[in-house]
Amino acid sequence: VMDGRKVGKWGWISDQINLLTDDPMQPYKQIFITAQIKEYFPPKDKKSLKQAPNIQLDRTDHAFGAHKEGAILHTTFQLRNTGRSPLVIRDMVTDCACVEVTPNAGTLEPGASLELKVKFDTVFRTGLQMRPVRIVSNDPDQSEITFYLKAQVLP
Q1: C-alpha to C-alpha distance for 143 and 146, rounded to whole angstroms
Q2: Is 56:137 a contact under the CB 8 Å cutoff?
Q3: What string of DSSP letters covers 29-70?
Q4: Rounded to a whole number, what is the distance in angstroms from the first to the last CA of the chain?
Q5: 90 pLDDT above the threshold of 70
Q6: Per-residue pLDDT band at 10 (split at 50, 70, 90)
Q7: What is the reported pLDDT for 4?
Q8: Residue 77 exposed, middle or buried by CB count within 10 Å (0-12, 13-18, 19+)
Q9: Cα–Cα distance between 61 and 129 in angstroms, integer?
Q10: The predicted structure's pLDDT at residue 104
Q11: What's the pLDDT tens digit per position in 16-30?
């Protein structure tokens, strides 16, 4: 059992287990594990849901257009807590080290907003690029939301 609060990881994670066996030909064995860790939210009535945090993004994608390989592309997204209790951003997960988002965690009070600064490094990338960024939070209705970065990277 993996508890996201204890390991500080949320969303899709991978890990491996290494075993030493008595197999003389291949004594080391590996088991690879992939799992999605989500926060458990007990069922809530309508009154409780109205008091919960609510995560909102100003948009779900950004198209950079066409750029030469090696360009460093920047944009911002606005993240807002439209709920009535603090919104905890647990993690921001990307599928590529070429994307950086800052800040990548924190707490937003009700009504507060936060500017997410996004950097996409196109070094060693060519062709159509579509990179997801998943935001993991304590919003019981949508504990994980995704926005996408799109670019046509020219050689």
Answers
A1: 10
A2: no
A3: EEEEEEEEE--------HHHHHTS--EEES-SEEEEEEEETT
A4: 46
A5: yes
A6: confident
A7: 63
A8: buried
A9: 12
A10: 80
A11: 899 999 999 999 999
Looking at the DSSP bridge assignments, the partners of residue 149 are 62, 131
Q: What is the pLDDT of residues 123-143, one digit of tens each?
A: 999 999 999 999 999 999 998
* Cβ atoms 131, 98 nearer than 8 A: yes
Calpha distance 86→144 (Å, rounded) = 16
Written as six digits, the tokens of 128 are: 């159509």
- The candidate with the shortest Cα–Cα distance to 69, out of 119, 118, 120, 123, is 123
105: amino acid identity, one letter:
A
In degrees rounded to 5, what are phi and psi of residue 49?
-65, -35
For 146-149, the CB contacts below 8 A with 24+ separation are 146/60, 147/57, 147/59, 147/60, 147/61, 147/62, 147/77, 148/60, 148/61, 148/62, 149/61, 149/62, 149/64, 149/73, 149/75, 149/99, 149/118, 149/120
